[in-house]
Amino acid sequence: MSSNKKYSIEVRVWIEEAEGAFLGIGKIWLLENIKKTGSITNAAKEMKMAYRQAWQLVEEMNQRAEKPLVEKLLGGKGGGGAKLTEAGERAIEVFYEVEKRIKDFAQKETQNLKF
Nearest-CA neighbor of 85 among 74, 71, 96? Predict the structure, then answer.
């Protein structure tokens, strides 16, 4: 009885810190949207997320990171905004690098799956 079933190994990556999950794909998307839109409000809208939740995620990331990832800009004529710090830019880069290496490994292992 031989059937050609296909299996694949799927992985979800997140980075933990003493307090729990620190960075996962959701927070990375939030950082990318803050970078793109220049504000937490617009980033939240873009993701159909409540502003309060986005704000809490940013606060949490900033507290847990060695250096803040998001810098809030004080309002002037056009109101305030937010931008990523160098550490924030680096967090996105590092996350995707690590995720790619892990997914490449999983893909290689997939080729050896036999049950």
Answer: 71
CA distances from 5 to 2, 8, 10, 55 (A): 9, 10, 16, 45
pTM for this predicted structure? 0.86
Calculate helix-pair angle for 51-64, 25-37, nearest 10 degrees.
110
Q: Position 76: which residue type?
A: G
**Secondary structure of 30-73 in HEC code, one letter for each residue:** HHHHHHHHCCHHHHHHHCCCCHHHHHHHHHHHHHHCCCCCEEEE
| Coil, helix or strand at residue 80 | strand
One pLDDT digit (tens) per residue for the chain, 115 residues? 556 778 889 999 999 988 888 999 999 999 999 999 999 999 999 999 999 999 999 999 999 999 999 999 887 666 679 999 999 999 999 999 999 999 999 999 988 888 7
